[in-house]
Amino acid sequence: QVRLVESGGGLVQAGASLRLSCAASGPTFNNHVMGWFRQAPGKEREFVVAVRSGGSTYYADSVKGRFTISRDNAKNTVYLQMNSLKPEDTADYYCVATFRQTFTSNHHDYEWWGQGTQVTVSS
After folding, report:
1. Residue closest to 114 by CA, chosen among 54, 39, 18, 27
2. Which of 50, 87, 93, 114 has the maximum number of C-beta atoms within 10 A of its C-beta?
3. Distance (Å, whole) CA 26 – CA 3
4. Is 107 helix (H, G, I), strand (E, B) or coil?
């Protein structure tokens, strides 16, 4: 079992940065692909990024070049550094995990989800 707890959301102005953290509990953290999804009000859930235990990454085009995912396997923590934030980045951000070792942007493929943290970017 994996439990995920996000933190770091907030209200910022366009162009600012935020760093989200996801603390994972469970003995097999290093075996999981970790990632982030987001969901804006009235919109579908959207894949943001994923990272393998070895560090390889997979980004959605909408965030490529602005967001960076990293993980600290010793601390069982995944980070999402978000730079140059735009109003369209406003959403609830969810940390996710899966045993699948192939990258996937399908939210059905992620077995574990955090409770979400809200990010609001004002124009």
Report:
1. 39
2. 50
3. 7
4. helix
Q: Is 89 helix (H, G, I), strand (E, B) or coil?
A: helix
Integer Rg of the chain from CA? 13
For residues 39 and 111, give the distance between their C-alpha atoms in angstroms, rounded to a whole number.
Answer: 17
What's the pLDDT score for residue 52?
A: 92
Residue 21: DSSP 8-state: E
Phi first, then psi: give them for residue 29, nearest 5 degrees. Answer: -55, -40
Confidence class for position 30, pLDDT limits 50, 70, 90: confident
In this prediction, residue 31 carries a pLDDT of 80
Q: What's the token pair of residue 93? A: 């951000």
**Overall residue count recorded for the chain in this entry:** 123
Query: What does the mean pLDDT of the chain come to?
Result: 94
Q: What is the C-alpha separation between 78 and 14, in angstroms, rounded? A: 24
